[in-house]
Specification:
Layout lengths: L26 H18 L4 H46 L3 H15 L3 H13 L2 H13 L13 H14 L3 H13 L6 E7 L5 E7 L3 H6 L2 E2 L6 H8 L3 E3 L2 H4 L13 E8 L2 E9 L9 H20 L8 H14 L5 E8 L5 E9 L11 H4 L4 H4 L9 H11 L3 E12 L2 E14 L2 E8 L2 H16 L1 E7 L5 E3 L1 H7 L22 H12 L5 E8 L5 E12 L5 E10 L1 H38 L12 E8 L9 E8 L5 E8 L4 H18 L5 H14 L6 E9 L4 E7 L5 E4 L2 E4 L19 E4 L5 E5 L11 H13 L5 H10 L9 E8 L1
Antiparallel strand pairs: 1-2, 1-6, 2-3, 4-5, 5-6, 7-8, 7-11, 9-10, 10-11, 12-13, 12-16, 14-15, 15-16, 17-26, 18-19, 19-20, 20-21, 21-24, 22-23, 22-25, 25-26
Length: 826
């Protein structure tokens, strides 16, 4: 600070030239003087407003200058500890005097081109190697240069963190520490407020310090009971970093929720395994998930908060912690259940590594049967090493010690390891924290009690209730489950077996009478099922299993047994029976439809084709229906001599199976026959047939080959509608005709088809076929066509022999209808 701006300067300008009071020497006095002079000017200086305004302006600027100087003085005081600590390190390393250490520090800072405070922070980082150093080094490693986090922030990350550390350590309470953290470390990160919560023994939260909030807001959040779920509570429950991108969208209450609705970070602040408090940092605007380096910096600041909370706790009796442990031992000795008093065991770095058994009471019972003196004084993980399993007993005790929240659970497995033998015991466990000690209580479940509870669960799951009826006294005993089955309260009078017919459906009276006769008169085991009509109007299906109890002289003493609610099973059996009936009916209908489809196929498409009376043309047909009736398809063929003496040759395949495919096949075959009488060419015939398929059938699609052979010129015109191309065999050489353009029949309302013409020589053979001849599930269509060509190359004495050979060597595995039409020119 220069002399012109020092708060201790002795001469200040007068309010008026040559006269006026001296300028105040403190911010408070200046503010009071401004208010007083403003009132005076408003009351009695109306005549000279032009003189008053400049005076007030000079006074306000002086107040602002003094305020900045005080803030700079505070910052210098916070950073002075950094310089003194660095001087001490140089004195120890260089073995020099304080004056020489200060001169050496200034010289090194000048040569390095940094400020003395920045150099002091760097020396501390290299010497301490603590969490603050880790946070600063991570930032440097990621940014490759010690630059500030936000534009306009001054100083390196290391200096900011070390300055905040100095301010927190020098603070007289947590409130001052929170202000130092916000000013030096959090404001450069963009944060505008911070809250430090202290965790009380009852797991409640107390606002130990805050900065950036109004006094009214801090007063409203002075205490948070254990049951209130806040941002800080989430961090305490999870024992980990908690990040909330936007408080306004999270729906979780917290301090300043109306003014600061942006991002929040909360991290536990603890030491020695105990969570002493929570550090909560507030940003004014929503932010995405932050980088790990920001998390490391805030976690390092949380350690400073833990140090402050530990150094400046709430006023209490210095002997309170020891007194609480003594009282806890007395409480454990007064309990009727086995109890242990545990105290934390810390390593040389004050980190929690285990719990030591400080005391066991007289009723202590070890799961492995070891005496109490073997456990008393031992470490918990030494006595019970398997308690270190994830989610085991050690994790439970550690969490209670950290948070102060009590734990209680039933049927917890306690495991001991004796001579490498695993010994398990089931127990009810309760864990609570008192000051710094832990009270662990377990009640090992006896075998009889455990079996009784297993029986209760079995009865509940099986909806079973037991009873016993003493015939000598007439007393009837039910368990609680049986009262539930009957829909009666446990205070109701149980229903005797003889009175059951009055509570059952009238149609079941005879069955109950036979049941009672078997038990009482024949003295034999008996069972009966009946409909129980309860008083609440509900009818249940009940099965009773009972047996007589006889004495040594075979006299009937009692009847005991069990009721079971089998309503769900009964209605399930009824539903299954109805489903089986519907399934059998459906199978019958499908079978009849498939048989009808097969009969239609045989009627329209006989396996053996009648001879065709056409000059110079020999036609042979092989039709192989599917083996299964459910796979009856829509394959069809036709050979017909038209009035023009031309021969119609066609083959097709309707999509689908069953009666629908068979009837659609008949429609298309007959339609093509009628259209062919017109004398139109194959392309025109397929165009018309597509119109019939699209408009006059019910969602039918099909493929087809249509050809017209002229015996006089031995030419054949043909067209295709999405079908496989014909096979042309000449001189033992087979090849497929080119694929002509033409869509499926019925796929489009309007379609056009290409047409081609070939001239055939004597002994030429044409094969028209459906996909059932070549299709395989594990082969492509190209490989299947190549296999057909290989088979067709082989010669054959006659056309019928050729077709038989092709069918014999077919490798199709789809169990589909197969149709092959062979045409040989003679």
């Amino acid at each position: 600070m220069n002399n012109s701006s020092s708060p201790h300067e002795s001469s200040v300008p007068a309010l008026q030239a040559g006269a006026g009071p001296a300028e105040p020497t403190s911010v408070d006095e200046s503010a009071a003087l401004v208010a007083a002079r403003t009132d005076a000017s408003n009351a009695g200086s109306l005549e000279t407003p032009s003189d008053t305004a400049p005076e007030l302006g000079r006074l306000a600027s002086t107040v602002e200058r003094l305020r900045r100087e005080i803030q700079a003085a505070h910052a210098e005081a916070d950073g002075r500890a950094l310089i003194e600590t660095a001087k001490g390190i140089l004195m120890e390393r260089l073995r020099c005097s304080p004056t020489e250490a200060a001169r050496q520090l200034a010289t090194l800072a000048k040569h390095a081109g940094v400020t003395v405070m920045e150099l002091a922070a760097d020396i501390l980082d290299r010497t301490a190697a603590d969490r603050l150093t880790e946070a600063a080094c991570e930032f440097v490693a990621e940014t490759a240069a010690p630059a500030p986090d936000t534009p306009g922030a001054s100083g390196s990350v290391s200096m900011r963190l070390r300055t905040a550390e100095s301010g927190a350590c020098a603070a007289g309470d947590t409130q001052a520490a929170a202000q130092s953290l916000l000013e030096h470390a959090l404001t450069p990160l963009g944060a505008t407020a911070v809250a430090v919560w202290a965790v009380a023994p009852d797991a409640s939260l107390t606002l130990a310090g805050s900065a950036g909030f109004t006094e009214q807001e801090a007063g409203r959040w002075r205490h948070v009971p254990p049951g209130v779920a806040t941002i800080a509570r989430q961090a305490l429950t999870n024992l980990d970093w908690t990040w909330t991108p936007a408080l306004s969208r999270a729906g979780t209450p917290s301090i300043g929720r109306h003014d600061l609705t942006g991002a929040r970070a909360a991290v536990p602040a603890g030491t020695g395994g105990r969570v002493l408090g929570i550090l909560e940092v507030c940003w004014p605007h929503p932010l995405p998930e932050q980088s790990p380096r920001l998390r490391r910096q805030i976690e390092a600041l949380a350690e400073l908060c833990a140090h402050t909370l530990e150094t400046h706790p709430a006023p209490s009796d210095p002997t309170a912690e020891h007194s609480a442990t003594v009282d806890l031992v007395e409480i454990a000795d007064s309990l009727h259940d086995p109890a242990l008093v545990l105290v934390p065991h810390l390593d040389e770095h004050q980190r929690l590594v285990d719990f030591r058994v400080h005391h066991v009471n007289a009723r202590f019972l070890d799961p492995a049967g070891r005496p109490a003196n073997r456990i008393n004084g031992a470490l918990l993980l030494e006595a019970y090493p398997l308690a270190a399993a994830p989610g085991g007993l050690y994790d439970i005790v550690e969490r209670v010690h950290a948070t102060g929240e009590s734990y209680r659970a039933e049927s917890v497995t306690l495991t001991a390891l004796v001579d490498q033998v695993r010994l398990d015991a089931i127990a009810d466990v309760a864990v609570s924290r008192h000051a710094n000690a832990i009270l662990l209580i377990w009640r090992i479940e006896q075998e009889a009690a455990r079996l009784a509870r297993l029986l209760q669960h079995a009865q509940r799951l099986g909806r079973i209730g037991g009873f016993e009826e003493d015939l000598t006294t007439g007393a009837v005993t039910w368990n609680d489950s049986l009262f539930t089955l009957h829909g009666l309260p446990t205070t109701a009078i149980p229903v005797a077996l003889a009175d059951l017919p009055r509570h059952a459906h009238p149609d079941d009276t005879a069955a109950l009478t036979r049941f009672l006769h078997t038990l009482v008169h024949r003295r034999r085991h008996a069972t009966v099922s009946f409909r129980l009509e309860r008083s609440d109007g509900v009818t249940r299906r009940i099965r009773i299993v009972a047996e007589p109890v006889l004495d040594a002289d075979d006299r009937l003493l009692a009847i005991r047994g069990a009721y079971q609610d089998v309503s769900a099973q009964h209605w399930t059996e009824v539903a299954l029976a109805a489903t089986r009936d519907r399934l059998a009916h459906s199978e019958q209908q499908v079978g009849e439809q498939n048989r009808l489809a097969r009969q239609l196929q045989h009627a329209i498409m006989p396996p053996a084709h009648a001879p065709l009376n056409a000059e110079g043309l020999h036609v042979a047909v092989r039709y192989r229906p599917a083996e299964s009736d459910t796979a009856v398809g829509g394959d069809w063929y036709d050979t017909l001599v038209l009035p023009s003496k031309q021969v119609l040759l066609c083959v097709g395949d309707v999509a689908g199976h069953g009666i629908h495919a068979a009837t659609s096949m008949i429609v298309l075959r007959n339609a093509l026959r009628g259209l062919a009488i017109t004398g139109a060419g194959p392309a025109q015939l397929l165009t018309w047939l597509n119109t019939v398929t699209h408009h006059l059938t019910d969602d039918v699609t099909a493929t087809a080959i249509c050809a017209l052979y002229d015996p006089g010129s031995r030419t054949m015109r043909w067209a295709r509608a999405g079908h496989l191309p014909p096979l042309w065999i000449r001189d033992r050489t087979a090849h497929h005709l080119p694929l002509l353009s033409g869509p499926l029949l019925g796929a489009f309302a309007e379609a056009t088809y290409d047409e081609d013409e070939i001239r055939l020589d004597p002994d030429d053979t044409l094969l028209l076929y459906t996909d059932g001849l070549i299709e395989r599930r594990d082969h492509s269509l190209e490989s299947s066509l190549a296999q057909l060509l290989s088979t067709a190359h082989a010669g054959a004495p006659t056309l019928d022999d050729r077709l038989d050979r092709i069918l014999t060597h077919s490798r199709a595995d789809t169990d589909d209808d197969t149709c092959v039409v062979g045409i040989q020119i003679t």
